[in-house]
Amino acid sequence: MSLESITCRMCSMKFTGRIPKRKSDDGEIGNDKNLKKRKAMENADSDVLFTKNGSDQNLEVSGKNTKFLVNNNGYDLVENLWSLEKDFNFPVANVFGKVIMDTDIRSLKSNECLTDRVIDCYLLLLVTQQSELGRNVVHYDQTKMTGIINSDFLLPDVSQNSGIDLEADVIVGVYHRSYHWTLVIVEVREGKIFFYNPCGEKSYEMKKIERSWRKYDHEYRHKYQISNKSPDWKICSSPHALQRDSFNCGIYCLVFAEKHLNGHLHDLQSITKKDLQIMRRKVALELMLYKVYLTGCCPKCAKKIENEEKIECSMCKRTYHFKPFCIEEDIIDLEDLTDFKCRMCRINFWGKYEADLKSVNKEIAKISTCQRKVFKYG
Fold first, then answer.
1. Which CATH architecture is the domain 296-345 placed in?
2. Where does residue 218 rank: exposed (0-12), middle (13-18), buried (19+ CB within 10 A)?
């Protein structure tokens, strides 16, 4: 299992591309010095308000167009991650089988480019919410969607195909093109392919996507012997706010996806910098609701420990592979292995909430899709 992730390299370089004229997404940020802020937001370019909401366990995060509740425990873990001086490449959450690393959560900080794992996992959460509402929505991860649009995706054997995707209501995924995140949402029953490029859609690019999807549709129906007539696919988009910076393409895609799936197309043009900043924090907090403490496997590589050499952290009691990848950096920093302390404990990452392993196991038991709050955006 590879734990590598990719970010948008285009957005890590100086943005020089021309942007078609549309309604500005900048909005009025304001300059109210009396606005209350949490310490972590002091250097952010948005005025986000944090207030207690009836319990010490909950915080209300609100902006001009956004309001949602967060779990205070998750908030503290996110702040711990964002305050680290460097990346440690440690698994910190597990969303429907996809491992989330500390580097992924840190990519949600201000002015950072999102990783593919963040985007794919949050789209999975949106798809799950739609399923709970009775809609048949399918998620294609960025590798599959990009392969389809580039016409180099190989369909799996019939025996390995678990469902008929083209009988779904909606198919959603990101298309990684020219080191830049874009969004594709296929309304299957309507025969429409919605394409969202945060920097603005180009006609030649939309024609390519329509042509590639028609090819995929034809090959899919032929290989899996689907008798239903193929729709007369049409490519389209909806007017939306435009990216005016060099790093927010990924978070724009997530905002577009959430609003589109919830039927809020009229809100796509009114996205502000404040909304993007709040969305970054919201995504980080929701992913951390799936925090996993990896007591059944190595916290570094996220793989089970079979009949292999292992070593236990004297503080968190988690067991690591006694292998270079899993503990080499810790061994370099430690002289005496009789009292092994993993790096995450030595930087006090887990904090007071996870000091007791029993409380960790209780937290794991509580994490489920049914218990997650469904946040409203917009």
1. 2-Layer Sandwich (3.30)
2. exposed
